[in-house]
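An instance noted here:
***
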Amino acid sequence: MSRLFVANFGFEDELSGRRMSRSAWEATRGLCGCWTPMLGPGDLAVLAPYQGDTEAPAGADRATEVVAWGWSQRMVRLAQEIGSGGGIPDPSVVEALNRRRWSFEQEVEAGMVPSGAVLAESQDACQGVVSRSPRIGSGWIVKADLGASGRQQRRITGDTPPAGFDEWLAGCLDRDGLVVVEPYLESVFECGLQFELGTGGGVRYCGATELLTTESGSYLGTRFGESVVLRLESDLEHLLARLEPVVDRAAKAGYFGPLGIDAMCFRSPTGETAWRPLQEVNARFTMGRCALEWASELPGGASGTVLVCRWAEAESVDRRLSELATEIEGLRRAERFSPPESPPGSPSGLVLLVYDTNHDPGMIDSIESIEGRVMACLAGPAH
């Protein structure tokens, strides 16, 4: 059996009826190899064609099963065209669970919603919230009902919304009927809790990863292994207990497949830290889930990072990573795995870094330093 892993990173755009911009789609070319640790003999990983294109992904004629990043109607049609033997969850259930309305309702049900957060169904309702100072956080963040990786959200600081906010807000309300308004929280640590929901309703906890993002929410990378265990420590049991009812409701709704829930440890204005156990629900694959598949290759006590890197010279990127693995103390492995071709055909992609942390909490600070050094080296001119 040959599986075709299709990276339709514009999944949320497909659900909402928007079209991912060509430039945004081009920027994801280097990420399509995220599936690498999951591939078996004969499997193929491809980037979904641009939404305006009609041709099937390369390799679809040889596949017997489609594995989609997220099950949109577009991916369902592809699976049906090739006679995919894999199970497909109800697309209407997939869409409902990926909407922020659903995760917000779960927070309300569990009494976990941040103070001041609301579903706003009109411009006046939204403006009424953001015109006030939040009790926690610094300013507000307004999120469309569907969006990912920092897309389709706007941060508001002070009294003046960013340029184009009113037009963006009107478009969101016209399309989805609501936006989510939340206090902007200062992140200390963000993690993704990964689950697998079976067709019969069973739930398997797969593990936790640390989510690395920019201030605007764009994806930078994923940490996994011992460093995440050390960061979570005793909090993991508490988080899983708070999220168990949410995961069960997703299963009872009829969803099956990968499920990722993002949680955040944040710092309040008084300096205290607290958890927001349910920041976002992703009823699809996530970069964290794919990165977690590398964990089986880690030696005991080791940690890893899947890092988004840009390189100045594609021809030398693999050689430079090999050199860094021998030069940097504590770095056991450094290799590019996405895009899979060599030299890479895109200016950026995914790099796997493996560290020997040896259960040492002090090594966590060194990991960030190593990541920065690797990124800076690849972005600069070759020596």
Remarks:
- The first strand starts at residue 3 and ends at 7.
- Residues 227 and 233 are 10 Å apart (CA to CA).
- The chain has twelve helices and 15 strands.
